[in-house]
Specification:
The chain is mainly alpha-helical. The protein has 15 helices and no strands. The chain has a domain at 180-248.
């Protein structure tokens, strides 16, 4: 149970709750150190909720004009600096800062705007999608080397990953690519990825505790690893079906009539999930 406890060193439980509810878990950790793993993942919500709070205001003020696009490009340009220069050597802030995290969201918004207004040829989409797939794959396989190398030191490793992801999304979206049935489990896991992300540390800590209780049997590591993934996926799916999706249906219900109204014309909805 000690792995779930917020210690006095980081401010205790009341301070962590306040930080979570006011979207500055990342600031708390940068100042006082990491929270337990099941709390630490909330740093990304701090970044995302700031986006959700201010993005509608910016859209209302600037619409989809050149100034709005310039603001998004500004976040992309400043992202690497948010992870390096502006972090002032704080290892946690290098990864968890607002400015460093806004870059990926801005890239997603720019991609959505571009795809809503431009239709690319199939050849271009294959080219862009292939490059995006290569970048994402290489970023995952060589993530540690990129983090410790020149890309990581300049903060461009996450920029490259974001660009590759957007290229992959652009290619698969306009080509209307559908995953083969063989990949259905991975597709479902992707659909529940955020619920898995928010709850997986409870599963990880549970099975790690079991591993220690069994006196660290190394021969069982592959089995425990696989079971941990399956249980984490199942827990994420349970949370999605019993909580996230019912809440989504309730929140979106009033907007159905507005979205389907011919008088409003076509609409584009941008959804970001980390």
């Amino acid at each position: 149970m000690h792995r779930f406890v917020v210690t006095a060193k980081t401010g205790g439980l009341p301070r962590a709750l306040l930080a979570a509810l006011t979207f500055h878990i990342n600031v708390l950790e940068a100042r006082h150190g990491y929270l337990p793993g099941n709390w630490d993942i909330l740093w990304s919500l701090s970044v995302e909720e700031m986006f959700y709070l201010f993005f509608p205001i910016v859209c209302r003020l600037f619409g989809r004009g050149k100034l709005f696009i310039a603001i998004l490009l500004g976040f992309v340009a400043l992202g690497p600096f948010g992870r390096t220069v502006f972090a002032h050597g704080n290892e946690i802030w290098e990864d968890y800062s607002y400015l460093g995290g806004m870059e990926g969201i801005a890239l997603g918004c720019l991609t959505a705007l571009l795809l809503s207004e431009t239709r690319f040829s199939r050849r271009v989409l294959w080219f862009v999608g292939s490059i995006g797939t290569t970048i994402v794959g290489a970023s995952l396989i060589f993530s540690w080397q990129a983090y410790r190398g020149w890309l990581g030191r300049t903060g461009l490793n996450m920029t490259l990953l974001g660009l590759g992801t957007c290229m992959f999304i652009a290619g698969t979206t306009q080509m209307q690519w559908k995953a083969p049935r063989l990949l259905t489990p991975l597709l479902r896991l992707g659909q529940y990825s955020y619920e898995v992300y928010l709850t997986h540390m409870f599963v990880v800590f549970t099975f790690f505790g079991l591993f220690l209780y069994l006196d660290k049997p190394m021969r069982l590591v592959p089995f425990l690893f696989l079971v941990t993934i399956l249980v984490a996926a199942g827990l994420g799916a349970l949370v999605a079906s019993c909580y996230s999706e019912p809440i989504n249906r309730i929140l979106r219900r009033p907007a159905k009539s507005a979205v389907s109204s011919p008088a409003l014309g076509p609409q584009t909805i941008v959804v970001n999930e980390t």
